[in-house]
Amino acid sequence: MTVATETHSEHDHSHDDHAEHGMSNAGYIRVAIILAAMTALEVSTYYVDFGAFFLPVLLTLMCLKFFIVVSYFMHLKFDNKLFSFCFYAGLFLAVMVYCIALATFKFFAA
Amino acid sequence: MLYRGRVSIGPRPGNVFDIPFTSVSSFVLLMSSLTMVLAVSAAQKRDDRGTTLWLTVTALLGATFVGGQVYEFTAMYNEGLGFTTSLFGSSFFTLTGFHGVHVTVGIIMLMSLVGIIKRSDIPGDKAEVVELIGLYWHFVDVIWIIIFTLVYLIPA
Question: What residues in A contact B46, CB-CB < 8 Å?
Answer without folding.
Answer: 15
